[in-house]
Amino acid sequence: MTFYISLIVEGQTEVDCIERLLHRVWNETLTFTFRLQVLPASRAARASLTHVDATTLKFKVEEARLKLDRYLGLDSTARGCIILLLDAEDECPAILGPRLTTALAGMVPAAVLTCCALAKSMFENWIVAGAKTLGGVNGLPDVIPSRKDFENFNGATWLEKSLRGVNNSRKYKKTEDAKVFVNKMDLAECCCNSPSFNRLVRKLRSFIDTQLNSSDGAAAS
Fold first, then answer.
1. Which residues pair with 37 in a beta bridge?
2. Is the pTM of this model over 0.90?
3. Ramachandran assignment for 149, one of left (phi > 0), alpha (psi -120 to 50 degrees), beta (any other)
């Protein structure tokens, strides 16, 4: 079986990094043996994806669904889902998450699995939450600076400050540096330190359990 993920994201960092991150989660954390394929992401500005009128979100969900359907139609054993991945920024995930989750579910047939994953406060917070293995990586100090309150600060600012601690002229280059850090960050530590990341991992596991159970039921009938 191949499991396909059709993504909707807000920025270039997510386009560049999330496929690698999902593959690492799949192989190292969930340890699934069947194949994962992450489809090219649909992208739009965060403000348009979270707007209450949901016009852009609906368009992007349809775009993501058509990509997914195209691959599922080629293989009767394949399964898949649509994931909307955004930064929570200053919004409360407990409010924004359920609203977007409800919106997603209403935009696709009931059989299509959907998930809204909100990084609190931003994607970089996940990197910082798993940064114990990043000492000396890509310009970071050999000894990682103190970290705490992993989801309620600016992760990009922490990364830049840490880089400047080694080289004062060094800036955090979002689309370049995040790719390197995602390859080396500690996923188990990130799950422990970041509830928002852990929710994404648990959701992926539940999707697979749902798909496998439905497959077993179909085979039994």
1. 4
2. yes
3. left
